[in-house]
Design goal:
Blueprint lengths: L4 E4 L6 E5 L1 H14 L4 H18 L2 H9 L10 E5 L2 E5 L6 H15 L2 E4 L5 H14 L2 E5 L4 E4 L5 E4 L11 E7 L6 E4 L1 H14 L1 E4 H11 L12
Parallel strand pairs: 4-5
Antiparallel strand pairs: 1-2, 2-11, 3-4, 5-9, 6-7, 6-9, 7-8, 8-10
Helix pairs in contact: 1-2, 1-3, 1-7, 2-3, 2-5, 3-7, 4-5
């Protein structure tokens, strides 16, 4: 699969574009780099965005949000402790994924953590899958509504809102759990492996306006080298 093409779907769905997995990753990477992220940050988030798009169609929407929030400098998250929670403040006002990844990695070690001003999204659930696997922890994500739960063996579950202690500030609560709660299994590692194989073979159908926006932003990273007159 090497070339993108437009295809008509149902009237409710509008026009979509079929792209290869490689195109999805590369355009996401270049768009993130054009928005000011380092090569390492862009590579990691591009993997998450591509995975969220391949498996749930949630990646390009997250990319649009991330590229609209250019970090204000290289200052890191500021951590404080309050009422049994770690609270991760982001002075640089990064996009949700950019702030979530280090916050989630911290929560896997220190315990319950809240990120003010961030709502739970499908893309954050997918980002948490990788962190849960590396940390060997069950992690719950909640902003007061339905919860996402990820496990070290690669399960993603969605659960109804639960009665949990109220955090000291409003935001996304990341909570390590001692056991896996019952809930709808959205994805398993085996299912993702099969879905990825299908996507590599047949491509991924993506929302055309979001794809056009991503490509437009990505073009800002690779600037043609005009050698005339040299």
């Amino acid at each position: 699969m090497t070339a993108a093409r437009a295809e008509r779907v149902s009237a409710a769905g509008g026009v979509r574009t079929r792209v290869s997995v490689r195109e999805l990753h590369e355009v996401s990477l270049r768009a993130l780099r054009a928005s000011g992220l380092s090569s390492g940050e862009a590579e990691y988030l591009a993997e998450i965005i591509a995975s969220a798009e391949v498996h749930e169609g949630a990646g390009l929407d997250a990319l649009a949000t991330e590229t609209a929030r250019v970090p204000a400098g290289r200052v890191g998250l500021r951590l404080e402790h309050c009422d049994g929670y770690a609270v991760a403040h982001d002075p640089a006002s990064r996009g949700p994924l950019q702030a979530f990844v280090p916050a989630c990695e911290t929560a896997a070690v220190v315990g319950p953590l809240v990120v003010p001003g961030i709502a739970r999204t499908a893309a954050l659930d997918w980002a948490a899958l990788d962190i849960a696997g590396r940390a060997g922890r069950v992690l719950s994500l909640s902003d007061g509504g339905d919860r996402g739960v990820v496990t070290p063996d690669g399960e993603l579950r969605r659960l109804p809102a639960a009665a949990e202690p109220r955090p000291p500030v409003a935001g996304l609560v990341i909570r390590p759990l001692s056991e896996v709660p019952d809930g709808q299994v959205v994805s398993t590692a085996a299912e993702r492996k099969q879905r990825y194989r299908e996507a590599v073979t047949h491509g991924v159908s993506v929302d055309t306006p979001l794809w056009t926006l991503a490509c437009s932003i990505a073009r800002g990273f690779l600037i043609p080298d005009h050698r005339e007159g040299r």
